């Protein structure tokens, strides 16, 4: 697609191809049917040494880190970050829809270097070329309960993923790893376990909420970008939740209703830490906490505000 208008017009024109796709297993991981059916080009994707991969479990701060990275790489130039919606600026590696909608791989093949690439793939499904090429990876993890709540509301308005159903059942599906992109527990643990063997910067959503300037400094140091303090503070302001929620280049309001049904909610909802306390019953919390302790046993990975 030549630009954002062309791309959005194209999606509107072909909106009839979108529906709630079922999940299919790919190497044991549940992914949306179009992704599973077009898996070979994803698995065989050829990374370039200067590629930067941004990885998260869904609804763990993906758009946030995309906007921060784009601003850092552009020296804090806010106008450059307004050149197109974030989903066009930073293509989604594994996303697939039925033809003729282009896949993430097909878009990335034609994207000039250096490329910044988004993925939700767990570590074991990331194309091996990223590790062979020693690419840099930034991973953002969010505490399980807040991540679950955000994903639940997202699945209500994202009409390309399975219907979330009632809250109680969704909590169980999360615990069992039966949501798109699989188990949160395996996802966050696998990148944590591999960060010492690869060039992975591991960030926490809660740390970003606590002190965004500190975490932006970590990002710019990891990317080896010189950034004056005034540019860094500009990034901190521009990347605040309230600013991004109002920004059509980050709030996904330009995505057609055939994909995101805005009568069911908004892509950027609250962005809070601890919002899970408004949704978990005492019984759900007790069951979830016991299961969490079992699944996270033996790891040094620790989250704040989860138990």
From TrEMBL:
Residues in domain Sulfotransferase? 49-299
Q: Which Pfam families match?
A: Sulfotransfer_1
Q: What class of enzyme is it?
A: transferase
Record keywords, A-Z: Cytoplasm, Transferase
Gene Ontology terms: cellular component: cytoplasm
Presence of the UniProt keyword Cytoplasm in the record: yes
User: What molecular function does GO assign, one term?
Assistant: sulfotransferase activity
Source domain of life is Eukaryota
Where mainly found? cytoplasm
The entry sums up its family as follows:
Belongs to the sulfotransferase 1 family.
**Protein name (Swiss-Prot/TrEMBL):** Sulfotransferase
Q: What is the lineage of its organism?
A: Eukaryota, Metazoa, Chordata, Craniata, Vertebrata
């Amino acid at each position: 697609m030549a630009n954002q208008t062309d791309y959005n017009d194209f999606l509107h024109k072909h909106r009839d191809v979108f529906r709630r796709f079922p999940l299919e297993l790919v190497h044991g991981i549940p992914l949306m049917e179009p992704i599973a059916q077009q898996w070979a080009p994803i698995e065989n994707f050829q990374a370039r040494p200067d590629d930067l991969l941004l990885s998260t479990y869904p609804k763990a701060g993906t758009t946030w880190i995309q906007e921060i990275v784009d601003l850092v790489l552009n020296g804090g130039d806010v106008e450059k970050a307004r050149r197109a919606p974030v989903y066009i600026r930073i293509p989604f590696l594994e996303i697939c829809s039925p033809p003729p909608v282009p896949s993430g791989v097909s878009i990335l093949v034609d994207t000039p270097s250096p490329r910044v690439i988004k993925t939700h793939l767990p570590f074991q499904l990331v194309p091996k070329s990223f590790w062979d090429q020693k690419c840099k990876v930034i991973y953002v993890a969010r505490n399980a309960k807040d991540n679950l709540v955000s994903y639940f509301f997202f699945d209500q308005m994202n009409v390309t993923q399975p219907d979330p159903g009632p809250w109680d059942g969704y909590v169980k599906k999360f615990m069992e790893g039966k949501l798109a992109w699989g188990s949160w527990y395996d996802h966050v643990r696998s990148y944590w376990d591999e960060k010492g063997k690869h060039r992975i910067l591991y960030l926490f959503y809660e740390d970003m909420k606590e002190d965004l300037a500190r975490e932006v400094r970590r990002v710019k140091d990891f990317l080896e970008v010189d950034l004056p303090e005034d540019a860094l503070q500009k990034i901190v302001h521009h990347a605040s939740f309230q600013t991004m929620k109002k920004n059509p280049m980050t709030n996904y309001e330009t995505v057609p209703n055939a994909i995101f049904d805005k009568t069911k909610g908004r892509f950027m909802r609250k962005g809070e830490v601890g919002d899970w306390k408004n949704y978990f019953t005492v019984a759900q919390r007790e069951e979830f906490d016991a299961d969490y302790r079992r699944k996270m046993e033996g790891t040094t990975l620790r989250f704040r505000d989860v138990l």
